[in-house]
Amino acid sequence: MVAEDERRVPAAVVFDALGLDYEKAFASSGAHRASLRWLLERLAPGSRVLDVGCGTGRPTAAALADAGHRVLGVDVSPVMVELAARQVPGAEFRRADIRDLPLEDGSFDAACAYFSLLQMDRAEQEAVVGRLARAVRPGGFVVLATVPVDIEGAEGLFMGQPVRVTSFGADAFKDVAVRAGLAVLAQEHAEFAPAHPEAVPEPHLFLHCRRPAR
Q: Which CDD domains match (predicted)?
């Protein structure tokens, strides 16, 4: 993806480099799996689900596809998309930037964005949440997960890779979802220590939302 617009390079470069190490570091997140169970309990059979920042396809796309749902996973990292397609053959994966991907209104039953907004600025994150809210049908679900800290353009290392991170505090991130027209049905807080020598424990916030029915 290095030939594309410079704004899209950092996340692709980071996750191309991490590959399966990212999956291994976060595979033991009980809160993430609990969030997936929350969604799976509410989806009708054969639902169409958008997985934003699908990574290696595990655990999100794999759990959804294994339950019989039709999954489209998108990621800016070509390495991640290749891994996901190999590991989760029951889902469809596409290298794409969610900021630009055409999304028809109401075309999905649910959308997930697990920790995939953190390298966007705040205006972009708010715009993407709004796009996801419109992409699910009325009555459909949107699940969002982030690291709920009030930082903007902070530079640091993530699993040894240089990153520039922007996020919202917990209440502010909930407000982003509400401004997008979503009803926040449940929120879960957790602390997770990734299984990687260069990772540090981090707070996690999961918002379980619904687009109100007409």
A: AdoMet_MTases
Q: How many helices (H) and strands (E) does the chain have?
A: 7, 9
Structure-token pair, residue 61: 């796309």
Residue 212: how many CA atoms within 13 Å on its side-chain side?
9
- What is the number of other CB atoms lying within 10 angstroms of the CB of residue 29? 20
Q: Count of residues for the chain?
A: 214
Query: Would you say the C-alpha torsion 42, 45, 50, 52 has a positive or negative sign?
Result: positive
What is the rounded average pLDDT of the residues 44-58? 96
CA–CA gap between residue 193 and residue 126 (Å, rounded): 27
Return the closest-CA partner of residue 94 out of 105, 78, 115, 114.
78
- Please give the model's pTM, rounded to 2 decimal places: 0.90
Determine the pLDDT at residue 7: 43
E-only strand ranges, the chain: 48-52, 70-75, 92-95, 108-114, 136-146, 151-158, 161-167, 183-192, 202-210
With DSSP H G I counted as helix, E B as strand and the rest as coil, what are the percentages for the chain, rounded to 5? 35, 30, 35
Q: Which tokens is 55 given?
A: 């990574």
Residue 147: is it exposed, middle or buried by C-beta count within 10 angstroms (0-12/13-18/19+)? middle
